[in-house]
Amino acid sequence: MGRWWPSRLLLGLLCAVVSAELAGRTDGGVTSSFVRKAEKGVDMPIDSDVFRLPPGYNAPQQVHITQGNHDGSAMIISWVTEDEPGSSKVLYGTDKDQLDFHAEGKHTRYKFYNYTSGYIHHCTLRHLKHDTKYHYAVGIGHRIRMFWFTTPPEVGPDVPYTFGLIGDLGQSHDSNVTLTHYESNPKARTVLFVGDLSYADTYPNHDNVRWDTWGRFVERSTAYQPWIWTAGNHEIDFAPEIGETEPFKPFSHRYHVPYKSSGSTAPFWYSIKWASAYIIVLASYSAYGTYTPQYQWLKAELPKVNRSETPWLIVLMHSPWYNSYNYHYMEGESMRVMFEPWFVKNKVDVVFAGHVHAYERSHRVSNIAYNIVNGKCKPVPDESAPVYITIGDGGNLEGLANNMTEPQPDYSAFREASFGHAIFEIKNRTHAYYAWHRNQDGNAVTADSMWFYNRHEATHPASHLDSLLAALSILSCSMEPENQAMLLPYLPWFLQKMRESEAESNHYACAHRAVLCCEALQVQSYIKPHRMGCLTF
Description:
The structure is a single chain. The protein is an alpha+beta fold. Among the domains are: 4-29 and 461-535; 158-195 and 268-457, 4-Layer Sandwich (Purple Acid Phosphatase, chain A, domain 2). The protein contains 10 helices and 26 strands. It has helices at 4-22, 173-183, 209-222, 249-254, 293-301, 333-345, 462-478, 481-484, 491-500, 505-520, and strands spanning 30-31, 61-67, 75-81, 89-93, 101-104, 106-108, 111-112, 115-116, 119-125, 133-138, 145-150, 161-166, 190-193, 227-228, 270-274, 277-281, 312-316, 350-353, 359-362, 365-366, 380-381, 387-391, 412-416, 420-426, 431-438, 448-453. It has an 8-stranded mixed beta sheet, with no helix packed on it. A 6-stranded mixed beta sheet has the order 14-13-12-24-25-26. Strands 2-3-9-6 form a 4-stranded antiparallel beta sheet. 45% of the residues are buried. The model is unreliable at 1-11, 15-27, 459-464, 473-479, 501-516 and 518-537 (pLDDT under 50).
């Protein structure tokens, strides 16, 4: 037990490294056999505790925060008062007993059919210190409520940071499980939300009371952690049959984003910098054809990304481009055709989407070679392409998408019809760890995971081999002989990678350890072909 315990940890590292290297391959994927425990596929009753109004006259409710400018030195604080406008002032400071600063905001209000909203306040706190905990108070002059948040660290290439991923949340019993599950995960500090918030539009006349209940439901997270918003189809709220012809009216009034700081002309597409990540939010339901504002903005935006400052390039959208479920199949095709060549050219690391109420992760593939003459319409492996992850599994009342196309396409690496959330943990400029947690597991259990290696930093292709070989070497020395056989399946792949590698000096020590490892494991057939010149010892 004493020697095998650390070996198990190292074997986990080995498997993670191999999985990261194999992520770009399209040699077949996994369809999970997990059968999800059934929950009620309906929204929680409107008198549920999670929708409870805070006590007190004109008490602030539905408090939520998001980044307030491009570099993270500002925060937008939003809330609603029901009885009267009250004050839009925010008091804030680093000492909860002495809020030394204040900022003035504004309030707005809207009508939707026979509904009139409360007074929706938005106030931007500027010139904040990075990586600092601030306490803030809203409801000045009436019922004061206090909360806190931590600003993002200063932007830089090796700044670690962990994001949570949630999509298509809604306000059902499953939604509550997802949010509770996410809250129990201690790592994530900011939510990247990929669209479809309240599902109020599923009610008769788009009952906007359900926007209010949703805001109160998620306040337990959104008041303390920034949520980065993406607009989905359930935010459109276009209902000409009841006289509502302004798309996104409730969403636009309630959820402000810092779109102007990135030169965008609308709040549905924008960008922010956060730690070592550059995050681009796109609008699946706004025009994106040539010469449209969104197209022109993205065309100008991508060249601005300085990968030496923010090496991780992350894109959020709602409708997925690669989706092997029968639900919403190929709905993202037209947007993919417009933007995918840019994603490949700029080596976007990962694209997160929702819309399909299930989970799926792709290999690194692209489909940019197709034209009417050559007929090449099948995605192919492409190490310059992003990994596409569909995480529309928040738990809304519409239920799971559990019908999949068969056989599983080559581009699909893993898929499962379950509710859950994910974590994207940036370690440094080269490595990030991604994990998806289904609702039925404890937060320490990952149902799917992957190590990301930043391709923009791929000028040193030995990085993964270094990690792999270090793990192999240590394992070969520390494992009991009967357990060493567990490593054998990995050796042919690893040695093939060695053959493909360039003979750079930083490979020599790796190769030296490789031969040592192979000898320790008595894999003689793989040793002799690799005793080349400088590798002889």
